[in-house]
């Protein structure tokens, strides 16, 4: 839906600086020129809320060149993190790996291996590797992130819940089910105490349904699967949830799992909820 109130930035009307000459729209200063990360993130949210993925990619790549040409490693780090997630969702393996590898390299260049933003990058990169069939490669990164998060975050921080949930997916892919269920339990515990954690809990229960099917087969796991799906449905129907772009994203993400297990009416309803939210964005 067209929105005439969108912010307009230089990426909307100007070309990035020349990679060969290094000019900053007429200057050649070698000092660090930092991008406005907050504004870049806000504009990105506008694109993704409208599902304008081509616009989102152009936006991120434009500011990536700006950060590189401005010698802004921290800005580049932020954009590489966004890009690896973007390309993972677009199922573009090579681009996702390129950005994950570069983001991890920047951590070492900055000497910031032990801070929170680096831990988040470890998780993002691990999730990329797991998504494209390299779960074994992801486990060490999840472990690095876990140690940092446990030292530096409160026990009810949603980021810790996200770590456990994503790590459990990788462990399931490796058929390390006992460890995966333990991570899922940790994820549910954290999200039950986090603000607005119901959506993440719903995702976790659907992941658990997939895990018990992988371990025991569909017929033997049917009762447990229905139990988990029922809990996830109740969480998604929580009337206190804000029906925003993230809610729409979660509905879209959960719908295929309900569809797969034969919960067709609910799957269709979740898709409809998402479409209504996106249409009003």
Show the helix and strand layout.
Blueprint: H1 37-49, H2 53-69, H3 73-89, H4 93-110, H5 116-131, H6 135-152, H7 158-173, H8 177-193, H9 198-216, H10 218-236, H11 245-260, H12 264-279
Low-confidence stretches: 1-29
**What class do helices, strands and sheet pairing give?**
mainly alpha
Q: List how many beta strands DSSP finds.
A: 0
What fraction of residues sit in β-strands?
Answer: under 5%
H-E string: HHHHHHHHHHHH
- Tell me the radius of gyration: 20 Å
The helical percent reads over 70%
Number of helices: 12
Largest sheet: none
Residue-averaged pLDDT, rounded?
A: 89
Shape: globular
| N-to-C CA distance | 7 Å
What would you say this structure looks like, in words?
This protein is an all-alpha fold and 281 residues long. Helix content is 72%, strand content 0%. The chain is built from 12 helices and no strands. The radius of gyration is 20 Å and the shape is globular. It starts with 36 loop residues before the first helix and ends with a helix.
Characterize this entry briefly.
Mean pLDDT is 89; it is low at 1-29. By secondary structure, this protein is mostly helical.
């Amino acid at each position: 839906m067209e929105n005439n109130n969108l912010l307009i930035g230089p990426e909307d009307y100007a070309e990035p600086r020349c990679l060969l000459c290094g000019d900053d729209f007429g200057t050649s200063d070698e000092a660090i020129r930092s991008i406005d990360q907050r504004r870049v993130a806000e504009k990105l949210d506008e694109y993704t809320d409208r599902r304008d993925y081509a616009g989102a990619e152009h936006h991120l790549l434009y500011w990536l060149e700006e950060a590189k040409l401005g010698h802004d490693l921290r800005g580049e780090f932020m954009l590489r993190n966004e890009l690896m997630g973007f390309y993972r969702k677009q199922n573009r393996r090579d681009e996702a790996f390129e950005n994950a590898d570069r983001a991890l390299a920047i951590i070492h260049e900055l000497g910031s291996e032990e801070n929170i933003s680096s831990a988040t990058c470890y998780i993002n990169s691990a999730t990329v590797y797991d998504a494209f069939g390299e779960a074994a490669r992801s486990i060490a990164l999840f472990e690095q992130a876990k140690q940092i998060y446990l030292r530096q975050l409160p026990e009810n921080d949603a980021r810790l819940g996200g770590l456990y949930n994503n790590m459990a997916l990788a462990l399931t892919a490796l058929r390390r089910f006992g460890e995966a269920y333990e991570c899922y339990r940790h994820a549910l515990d954290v999200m039950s105490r986090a603000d607005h954690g119901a959506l993440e809990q719903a995702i976790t229960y659907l992941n658990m349904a997939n895990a018990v099917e992988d371990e025991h087969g569909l017929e033997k796991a049917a009762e447990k699967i229905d139990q988990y799906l029922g809990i996830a449905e109740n969480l998604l129907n929580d009337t206190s949830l804000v029906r925003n772009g993230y809610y729409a994203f979660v509905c879209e993400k959960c719908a295929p799992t309900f569809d797969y297990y034969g919960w067709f009416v609910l799957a269709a309803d979740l898709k409809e909820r998402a479409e209504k939210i996106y249409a009003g964005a």
